[in-house]
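INFO worker-7 received task bundle
INFO bundle size: 2
INFO processing item 0
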Amino acid sequence: MTKMQKPTEMLSAEHQNILKLIAALEKECGALESGKPIDRAFFTKAIDFIRNYADKFHHAKEEDILFVELCKDSVSMHCNPTEQMRHEHEIGRGFVKGMEEALNSGSRQKLIENAQGYVQLLQEHIYKEDNILYPMADEALDAQMQKSILNEFGNAEKKRFAKGVKEKYIALAKEFGKRAG
């Protein structure tokens, strides 16, 4: 019998795709600081990836499903960092909006500032989720609840992404990974 995947394992795997983007953004910011022209196509793809894969796909599963379960009275944790994680998601959305505005206005410095802010935030955020929140969730949620959350994740994926869209973003993450080299 195969071991059931935990919801947190699925989310951590998605983090690996997001970290590929983060590495590419970090590299691109360094190139911009060295005088390279703004690569509009790269930043357009990056913003699309963040909004659709990181936010509508990944963060939505956390915020709408996992965090909701972790906040129920029946779940016992010594502390609950989900509100902080939600707050950091909102800060990240602000950086993405700032990147888009800077890209549209051609403001190189604002683009760099917002992209670097997003990079730093997400590196720290993912570390906290993978190493603090998710182990707490694994301990607090019984096997039946974890199975239920996985089912809800599957339903959310089907609802948010048409067939082939998830694969499109995973391919884009691989492209970012190659770019980050």
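INFO item 0 finished
INFO processing item 1
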Amino acid sequence: MVRTLELPDAIAWTPELLGRLSPEFRYEVREGNLVVMSAAMRPWYAETRRRLCNLLVRQGRHAFIEQGVVLDDDEIRTCDVGVFAEPPRGDIAYHKAGEFTLLVEIVSATSRREDRELKPRPSAAAGVPGYWWVEEDLDGEPVVYQHRLVRPADAPWTYAETRVVTLTALEES
């Protein structure tokens, strides 16, 4: 089945314009360019995302699945799980990076470079304090790579790995 996506004329993509697009897809803006992504996912991915969100909520954090993150004027991303400093407004889908304390990405074979290298840079530059990526080990267990925001001398903000732990171990602690 062929689907047609009607797009508004846009010189610059804004959170408001993205919010008017079809909810059948996921959207990001990378270096000013609109990227349209499929909403379908593997059961392992969906289950891992649900477990992570539930864990963070049980910890008393304001965690939500698939949050839009406005990093700057030409970077709008969607994280797998976003943790807010305060409860977010419920009527908007794209939030300023400064509202988040943690962004979580679940790595798949097709997103490895994106989630490990490309997404952390603008998130660090925008000042998001924490960044995790999660990968599947050989036994199917989610492994969480936890990072915190640091600023090395005379260098831009970046993330430093603080811990690598299985999701099961996090749930049990």
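INFO item 1 finished
INFO post-check item 1: The longest helix spans residues 43-58.
INFO post-check item 1: The mean pLDDT is 90.
INFO worker-7 idle
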